[in-house]
Every structure is written in structure tokens, then in C-alpha cells.
Amino acid sequence: MKSAVRGMAGIACAGSLVLLAAGCGGRSTEDSTGGGSGKGDDKKHSAAVGVVSQAQADKLVDHYEKINNKANKNSDPKLLSTVEGGAVFQQSKATFKVQKTWSAKDRAEYRNPFRYVDRKFYIPRKGTADWFVMVAHSKSPGEKKGKYPGILIMEKQKSGDWKMVTASYSETKKLPRLAKDKGGFAVPVTNTAKKTGAQSPDSLSDSLLDLYTGQGASGSGFRPSKTTKWIRKIPKAQNKLLSPYGAAEFSRGEPTHEKAYALRTANGGSLAVFSTQVREHDRGTQVTATIHPSDKMKVYVGDTSGAPAFFVDWLHISSAYIRPQGRPDLLGSEYEMTGAAAATDADGNMPGADS
Where is the signal peptide (predicted)? Predict the structure, then answer.
């Protein structure tokens, strides 16, 4: 996975929205074993271990970085799948797929090797989670490091291998202070359906979808931010593009890779990374209207001249700070087109899709 500027691929032509580009990586000065004041505490804490040690986390990320760079150079999803999974791999595969629509300059820039610098690891105690968090910046040779921090999560697979499964990029340089247990370990939210402040980590996906549909209850959802602003523009821009003979509707897509990961913050809230599947339904509003796919959509639907309607799937990976009280902050979001299909009839029906 590599941070990239992603935009909205519209139907007749591509309308783009610039997203925050940032990298990921990190080392932490935190002691993963902690320490106590009494002999009993010393014995207890010395025996406690994290899901990985700081040194192990560093090596895992070094290996991921090496394979990731090699896979990016050759647009090789099979190789990348050995170190990536979940939502972030779905985005990476989609990026490789649509690169044929990019300029030669953009492809070359994406394939430049990069490193994770200023690594900070937040490692839960063994037995409380099977994943850990890294906060860092990306840096390519001869360039300055990314301005904004990435929040990446590496998870242990059933096979025993570790893979990067999700990553989000903040629009702020300052993240909330995370909680530690008595041993100095990060504290995971083990029940993401339960509120850890004003919202649960699982409900964040609904709040992001509300930015597309505008169906959220008054006062709910996220505080206004740069990220909420550009996401709200997407349905408006697409409907303007299709007007006056077409319209776009947005709903939840197939929740294949929707999963939330969260760590508790020191003030009783949580810092979460979550994914959201969004399905766009573009259709003609008159019987004779035809929708023409963008170049990016043609990667999935072929060189078709048009159809009465299309479905387009988008996958967001986002980060949010759930405050102890009040609405959460949407810190950042990245999205990629992961599929598109022409409707099967003039009514815009597509098997397995709810419009």
C-alpha cells in the first residue's frame, strides 16, 4: 500500500477531488513491558508481553516495506498479497488495475520506492488483540517526508503471518494521546460495537455514508472538517455532471471489507481506523438517456459506448477520533474505485445490488 492522491472518476468525464496524501511508519520510545513500583508489580509486568515486541514490529514493517516497494514497481497484486490483506489490499489491487488510466509521470511517481520514517508503535498486551498500530510518515529518496501521519494496522493471520490490513491518513499532525495499561501497553477496544465515547467504532461507517446520502439525524455524524467537506461534495458534483438527464444515488455497498480497529485514548475516547463500502448508482432520468462511463470505469466495464445505468463501487478507509462527549472528528479518508458494472435493464437493476 502506498499513499496516493485519489480523485472521483465521474461518468462522462473524470471530476477529481484532491485527497490528503501522506505516508506511514514508525518507532516508539514507549517501553512495551512497562514496570511497577513493588516487587509483585515488577514480577507481573516483567512477565507481560505485547502481541509483538517493538523490535519484532520494526522487522515486520521493514519486510512489508521491502515487498510493498517491489510489488508497486511491477504492479504485482499476487506478490503484495503476501504482506497485505483486508481493505488496504482491496484498494491496492484497484490502484494497480486503474494505473493504465494514469499519466506516465503519475505511474512513475507511484512506483518510486519509499520508506516509513518516524515510526511509533502502539502495541496491545498479548491476549487482548492480534494486531498493533503504527503511526508514521512516508519518505521517498530525495524528497521530504509526508506532511501528515499515517495510521497503519498490521494483523496476525490464521496462518501465523502478519499482514498490513488497513491504513488511513490524518489531516492533522496532532493525534489524540492514547491510553496505556499498567504495563505500558496500548489498550484496544475489544468490542467495537460498544460506545467508547459518543459513538462506537462500528457506527463510524454509517456516519461516513451519511455524508453521501445526507440521511443522518440532526446533530449526528462528524464535526465539520476538511475531510467531511470534500466527501459531501462528491454526490453534488456527480449529480451536476449527470444533469439534466441523469442522476446519481448513493447507498451502502457490499460490506465485504468493513471492519473497525480502535485504541482507547487517555481521556476515555478512542482512535479508530475503519472502512466503508459505498455504492453509486448512476442512471438516466429519461427513457432515451444514456450514461457514458469514464476511462477509469472502462477498466471494469470495457470499452462500452454507454448504458441506461451503471453501478460503481467505492471503498473508503478512514480514521476518526471519537471524543468522550460530542461528535467525533473524521481525521482523514482515502477512497478508490473497486468495481463498476452496467445495469442489466433500463430500470437500472443489477443482480446482487440494491439501488
Answer: 1-21
Distance of alpha carbon 155 from alpha carbon 166, whole angstroms: 9
Q: Judge contact between 5 and 18, C-beta under 8 A.
A: yes
Q: Which region, left, alpha or beta, applies to residue 149 given φ > 0 means left and ψ of -120 to 50 means alpha?
A: beta
- Give how far Cα 103 sits from Cα of 106, 262, 330, Å: 5, 37, 31
What are the distances in angstroms from CA 47 to CA 32, 33, 35, 40?
A: 11, 8, 10, 11
What is the model's pLDDT at position 39? 46
Burial (CB < 10 A; 0-12, 13-18, 19+), residue 26, is buried
Positive or negative CA dihedral for 172, 223, 324, 198? negative
Position 301, amino acid: V
- Sign (positive or negative) of CA dihedral 249, 235, 24, 5: positive
Q: What count of other Cβ atoms lies within 10 Å of the Cβ of residue 168?
A: 30
End-to-end C-alpha distance for the chain, whole angstroms: 31
106 falls in which pLDDT band (50, 70, 90)?
very high
Q: How many residues does the chain have?
A: 355
Q: How far apart are CA 326 and CA 11, in angstroms?
A: 38
Beta bridge pairs of residue 50: 125
In sequence order, the β-bridge partners of residue 190 are none
Query: What's the pTM value of the predicted model, to 2 decimals?
Result: 0.84
Task: Give the separation between CA 78 and CA 76, rounded to whole angstroms.
Answer: 6
Pairing relation of β-strands 131-139 and 150-156? antiparallel
